[in-house]
Amino acid sequence: MTDTSATGPTSKPTDVLVNFVLDKSGSMGPLAASTIEGFNAFLDEQRAGTGKALLSLTLFDTSFDVRYVAVDLREVPPLGTRGNRYQPAGGTALLDAVATTIKGTDAWLTGHRAEFSGDVICVIQTDGEENSSTTTTLDEVNALITAKTAEGWEFVFLGTGTAAWTEGQKFSAIPQDARFAADADSLSHRAAYASVSRGMTSKRAHGGRYADSLRAEGLPEEAKEPRP
């Protein structure tokens, strides 16, 4: 895998396996349209990129739904369509969703080492606090993230709204400068997805650290203290 410790682009095209853990709890209802629009714009831009781009997608509410594991991004149907529905409801099983995604991706990589040698990136998006996981603790998730970071994976936390600040701080295994924030309005949410996509395009074209690409695209870092 590409050295993700670099602080700047390597000018080396990079294949990627993007693991998207996406909140569809009830509180995401007001942002459903902007989530669908933003995620589909991400898919469209990445389909046009060069090199290999694989996608895993896990949605979560009171439970979680593993939609795809390491499939060709070009084959993923648009979010909000019959084959890939997005209907916010229920609670927030964030920890179960993150742990299941990491373990599923790890298992896929174990069986496909000859097929993929690119970078693994996990994007975790939520607008609220964990309240529904049944099989995974926070300590277990942070331990998984620490172990996979040591293997070269990169994790990014994208919190939406002020309620997500507390949750972002709990993911202590993700560096502070890889935790980002967006306001809980449709315009800010769409802008965040646009930064996520442009940052991925830069990452794929030049290598380097994805969090640095996001920062270069103007995605706001999560504040070290909660906003009033």
Describe this entry's structure for a reader:
The model is unreliable at 2-10 (pLDDT under 50). A six-stranded mixed β-sheet has the order 3-2-1-4-5-6, with helices on both faces. The chain has helices spanning 32-47, 94-111, 138-150, 163-170, 186-206, 210-216, and strands at 16-23, 53-60, 64-72, 119-126, 154-160, 179-182. By secondary structure, it is of the alpha/beta class. The protein starts with 15 loop residues before the first strand and ends in a 12-residue tail after the last helix. It is built from six helices and six strands.
In helices, the fraction of residues equals: 25-40%
Q: Give the mean pLDDT.
A: 91
Number of H/I helices: 6
Using the 3D structure, state the CATH architecture.
3-Layer(aba) Sandwich
Uncertain parts: 2-10
Largest sheet: 6 strands, mixed
CATH classification class:
Alpha Beta
The count of β-strands is 6
- CATH topology call: Rossmann fold
- The proportion of strand residues reads 15-25%
Identify the overall geometry: globular
